[in-house]
Design brief:
11-stranded mixed sheet; single chain; alpha+beta; 59% helix; Aminopeptidase; two-stranded antiparallel ribbon; 4 domains
């Protein structure tokens, strides 16, 4: 292993140098470009917002009449109907058929996610792949559909802009700083180009396919393209009307407005920002700022974002969550919608990220004075002050936890639910923010509806966050900081603001909340950057397995045969005469048993393993170590916890005579009366019995609705069984039970491995099996038979016991509801074994608690 470690390190360093040369700089380009665009947009918006007051924008926003909200909702619905129709034409173009309900779900949810997340062709296309793929639409067809609808939308925007420019050249001419005559000529050329494109299409109903070098292109039929462009114009008209209705009365006509709106959307598509945010607003303010009051225009843009982007996203997530219920499943066959709910984590990830952004912005902006006057009589000052600061920090946590939702992690779901529930309460305390509370309550409902989709048990922050994700968080913090300075533009800054605490000191609260949010985000990002690589579990190579088997055969500890399962990594000593077997989950690097090999090399291996775990930011743990080796672990600075006792039967004194063996004699006679017999199958003959043993094992597992264990428990695998011996029990000639037993060449000790029996076998079959095994090993000259460990056996409460020892005694006393600890001890006790203590050695008692959780996950077969 030492040789392999050296080779691995050299290859890793070479790869690392190559990565810095070829990859890392490329990975920096996209996040750096996004950050640069954000900075430029903030600078541009700062320049354009010099005459805008935050409070006037708030007043304009809350002064919008309810009927305008309803009209905007209707216009949004019209736009999404056009979107669905465009997808229908696109599916016809790619020769695919989709049921109408799935068409509505795919088009609406895909467009909602694409609008909110940016890169609509990719994000919306991913949703359509999942939804339309449920009925056999291939990813290639979805890709062609996405290209067709995207290009046709761009043509529709060009058509709307060109027609509007010919109708009224003033708005676009002013925005583009070109003459009206030049703009009119350019618009006419655009219309002529569109006409040529339509003319070059296939026949009225037949599409063409052409190639250019290695690329193949689908040229749509003329009818499909015309319909797609017409529906695109209708889509733009509906979306534009959703914004138009929020604008105050002005001399700008709807056609002129739609011209500017189409041009702004086209620029937003080129920028690929989420919903064109920043670019779209800048263009609209620049083009219409001279005809509309700036506060009313900004308020209209904010309302438009809520209606056209926020609400469809929330409703789409609700629809996908609805597939968890019976109503929508009955509407569509389960085979068609089984994969749809898998999209829920993606939508909830985005909504959680937006909710976190909302909390940070809310903490950076002032609460309404009237609501603070009410809160003055309801909550103490300290509650108001702390709620705004804590809410901003929770918002930062939601930004990072959202990534765990995308990976469908169980821990991320629980943490998100907790953070959102706490934030829901804080949103009321900090300023009676009922809209914010409503959004958070909706997120709680969506999380509860999709609980079973978050079933992956893994460490929430085990994997490093991508640079793009960290940069997204940084952009949110930057935007929130700008909004704070914009909101308090008229408040003169002084150092005293940091220490002013009063109900009406809104600037001070926002300043502290923004600082807390920024520091929290920076601390987490810095921790991600500086923490060591966590390392990964690697299956042992065939050469390492061969060397380990030779070491195992040459010593007397038979339980070391668990290394041959192949589910644990190996760490060899410098001489490769001793090794440790270990596995990893989360931060826990767990070695099973003491080192195997000459005792003089144990101390080196233990210290080497501790250093290896710490080098990767993990904790070293040694599971089921023996009492005579405890000084080695204490010298390494580890804490000890008693895990239980191992039952070791002394075969020299084992027989069935005397009153204490009466129960065993009775079990033996009853099993023989039931027709039980045994046979021993040596390792060379085991392959011929695989089918029989597999059948018994599968039926045993099925009767317990369980799954194979691993790590410290022997599991059924043909490769592992082939290295063991087996004792098989037949009842009236039918195989009903078996156990494997591990031995070494020294013939000192044997350890029971895999144990299985059929449910219909004699109730005395396991007693009979172990009696016969003990007698067989005794006659073969073995001195000990290990029946395995009885967990938490012998862990008794003492006056000076450590917290870990007291915890173990409580588990032994009250844990019978979850696992039959005392029953297992009683079963093994029938053979009158010697009980030898086994311990866990780990860093600290808190680390021991986390290690026990990780060990249970390792026993379930998971690795990380």
């Amino acid at each position: 292993m030492q040789r392999h470690e050296g080779e691995y390190r050299r290859k890793a360093l070479t790869a690392l140098r190559g990565t810095y040369r070829r990859i890392d700089y490329k990975r920096l380009v996209s996040p750096a470009l996004a950050l640069g665009i954000c900075v430029l947009l903030l600078v541009a918006i700062q320049h354009m917002s010099q005459g805008i007051n935050y409070h006037s924008v708030s007043r304009q926003l809350f002064a919008i009449a309810p009927d305008r909200w309803l009209i905007a909702l209707g216009a949004t619905a019209l736009s999404f109907v056009a979107l669905v129709a465009r997808d229908a034409i696109g599916l016809r173009h790619v020769a695919a058929k989709v049921p109408r309900p799935l068409l509505w779900v795919g088009a609406a949810t895909g467009s909602a996610l694409g609008n909110a997340a940016g890169f609509g062709a990719l994000t919306g296309g991913a949703v359509r792949c999942r939804v339309y793929g449920a009925v056999g639409v291939t990813p290639a067809q979805v890709g062609r559909l996405t290209v067709f609808t995207g290009v046709s939308l761009a043509l529709a925007l060009l058509l709307s802009s060109a027609l509007g420019a010919l109708w009224d050249t003033a708005p676009l001419a002013a925005m583009m700083h070109v003459g009206r005559a030049s703009l009119a000529i350019g618009s006419a050329l655009v219309l002529a180009l569109l006409a040529v494109i339509v003319a070059c299409c296939g026949t009225a109903t037949r599409q063409l396919r052409t190639r250019w070098r290695a690329l193949a292109f689908d040229i749509p039929s003329r009818a499909d393209l015309i319909w797609e462009i017409a529906l695109g114009v209708l889509d733009v008209v509906g979306a534009g009307a959703a914004l138009w209705v929020f604008l105050p009365q002005t001399d700008v006509s709807f056609v002129s407005f739609l011209t500017v709106y189409s041009a702004a959307l086209l620029l937003g598509m080129v920028g690929h920002t989420p919903g064109g945010v920043g670019i779209f607003e800048s263009v609209m303010v620049f083009a219409l700022g001279g005809d509309l009051s700036a506060p009313s225009l900004v308020a209209a843009l904010l309302a438009y974002r809520v209606v056209y982007f926020g609400l469809p996203l929330l409703l789409s997530a609700g629809v996908l969550a609805g597939f968890e219920g019976r109503a929508l499943r009955q509407r569509l066959p389960l085979r068609r919608v089984a994969g749809l709910a898998q999209l829920a984590p993606l939508f909830l990830c985005l909504i959680t990220f937006l909710a976190g952004s909302m909390l940070i912005v809310s903490g950076a902006t002032p609460a309404f004075g009237r609501r603070l006057a009410i809160l003055r009589h309801l909550v103490p000052l300290w509650a108001l002050e702390s709620s705004q600061l804590v809410s901003a920090v929770l918002g930062v946590l939601l930004l990072f936890v959202a990534r765990g939702l995308l990976r469908r992690l169980d821990a991320a779901w629980w943490l998100t639910l907790t953070l959102v529930a706490v934030s829901l309460v804080l949103s009321v305390i900090k300023g009676l923010a009922f809209v914010e509370a409503g959004i958070l309550a909706s997120l709680v409902v969506l999380l509860l509806c999709t609980r079973r989709r978050f079933s992956r048990r893994s460490s929430l922050f085990a994997e490093r966050f991508t640079l793009g994700w960290v940069m997204s968080v940084a952009i949110v913090i930057m935007c929130a900081a700008w909004i704070m300075f914009f909101a308090y533009r008229n408040v003169p800054y002084s150092n005293d603001l940091w220490w002013q605490f009063a109900f009406d000191e809104r600037a001070s609260r926002s300043l502290r909340a923004m600082l807390a949010a920024g520091l929290s985000a920076a601390a987490f990002a810095l921790w991600q950057l500086l923490r060591p690589a966590k390392g990964r579990f690697v299956h042992p190579s065939s050469e390492d397995l061969t060397d380990a088997v030779q070491i195992i055969r040459g010593q007397e500890r038979s339980d070391a045969g668990l290394a041959m399962m192949g589910d644990k990594s190996f760490l060899f000593s410098g001489s490769r005469q001793a090794f440790l077997m270990y596995a990893k989950h989360g931060r826990t690097w767990a070695a099973l048993h003491d080192p195997v090999g000459p005792r003089c090399e144990w101390a080196e291996l233990i210290n080497k393993f501790v250093a290896l775990a710490h080098a990767h930011g993990g904790r070293a743990a040694f599971y089921q170590v023996r009492a005579d080796s405890l000084p080695l672990y204490l010298d390494s600075g580890l804490t000890l916890m008693k895990l239980g006792e191992e039952a070791r039967v002394g075969l020299d004194a084992f027989d069935l005579n005397g009153p204490k063996r009466a129960a065993l004699r009775y079990s033996l006679r009853r099993a023989q009366r039931d027709g039980c017999t045994t046979e021993v199958v040596d390792a060379p003959d085991i392959p011929a019995y695989f089918e029989i043993l597999r059948d018994i094992s599968d039926r045993w597992l099925g009767s317990r609705a369980g799954r194979e264990k691993s790590f410290s428990v022997a599991a059924f695998s043909e490769a592992y069984l082939a290295a063991q011996s087996v004792m098989l029990v037949r009842q009236n000639g039918v195989p009903v039970a078996f156990t494997t037993f591990m031995t070494t060449d020294l013939n000192v000790e044997a350890t029971v491995g895999v144990m299985r029996h059929l449910p219909e076998a004699s109730p005395y079959v396991m007693d009979y099996l172990f009696i016969e095994l003990a007698m067989h090993l005794k006659s073969a000259g073995y001195r000990f038979l290990s029946l395995g460990m009885a967990p938490f056996s012998g862990v008794q409460p003492m006056p000076l016991s450590s917290p870990l020892h007291r915890l173990g005694s409580m588990v032994w006393k009250f844990g019978g509801r979850f696992y039959n600890f005392q029953g297992l001890r009683a079963f093994k006790g029938k053979f009158q074994p010697g009980w030898e203590p086994r311990y866990l050695a780990v860093s600290g008692w808190i680390g021991a608690l986390m290690t026990l959780v990780d060990l249970s996950i390792l026993a379930g077969g998971r690795r990380s």
